[in-house]
Amino acid sequence: ARRSNNHFGIKCHRGWRGESVYAADDTPNDCFRKYRKVEDSYEDHAQFLTVGGRYRELFELSAIDYKGWARGLQKTGYATDRAYANKLIKLIEDYELYRFDNKNYRKGITRRQREENLEQEVARANWTHQPYKTHGLVYVIAVNGDSFAGIAHEFGFKENDLLKFNEVPEGFPLSEGDIVYFQKKKPRADKPYFEHTVQIGESMYSISQKYGIQLRNLYRLNKKSYEYVPEEGDVLRLR
């Protein structure tokens, strides 16, 4: 990226007539495209994804569904790293990059304006969440367009309490199907859940939500640092 403005690691491939640089990747001397400007890299990457049918199905996803895009890119062979999707999701969530998907955040909208927008959103919404109970914990399943603020308002919680129960920072986005707990998660999974085999696109956080385990304990049970990114096929202890 620094030497050639190639921010997406696009290789030369057949038909590339621009400048090139060489670096070790799948082979010791792979050819990568070199660009005059950073903007050229972004434009070329957009064409790379849209030309041909390989990634066509991904464009049916929401532009802000970063988890779906990460999983889809790995499944379609975009990257050879078995942990590609999991690493990408972890980076987005660690640095809270999902905030840039929020038009209010991009515009630098004031806190008061955000509160007014939320009041209008809640007033328009027709909330119909059904509470469930699993692992001894009460939760609801998020639907498209949900937010922690909206769910907190519906059930009479403080938003900060829901954020603490679910171990996420303010502004963390909800995707359809996400679990939202109404109480503190447990130190370990209930029996008979002793271990979990990692699937594409899963993170330590998503696994902790699935089994109702406190995230820090999931790391401790498996003697992993917070830099660890689970790969597909990894087996993790749950208790």
Features:
239 residues, alpha+beta, Membrane-bound Lytic Murein Transglycosylase D, Chain A, globular
Molecular structure report:
It is a single chain. With about 240 residues, this protein is of the alpha+beta class. The chain has a domain at about 80-239: Membrane-bound Lytic Murein Transglycosylase D, Chain A (Roll), CATH 3.10.350.10. The protein has 9 helices and 7 strands; from the N terminus they run E-E-H-H-H-H-H-E-E-H-H-E-E-H-H-E. It has helices spanning about 40-50, 65-75, 85-95, 105, 110-125, 150-155, 160-165, 205-210, 215-220; strands spanning about 20-25, 30-35, 130-135, 135-140, 180, 195, 235. The strands form 3 sheets. It has a 3-stranded antiparallel β-sheet, with no helix packed on it. The chain has a two-stranded antiparallel sheet with strand order 1-2. A hairpin with a 6-residue loop joins strand 1 and strand 2. Helix 2 (about 65-75) runs antiparallel to helix 3. The longest helix is centred in the middle third of the chain and has 14 residues, at about 110-125. The model has no long low-confidence stretch (mean pLDDT about 85).
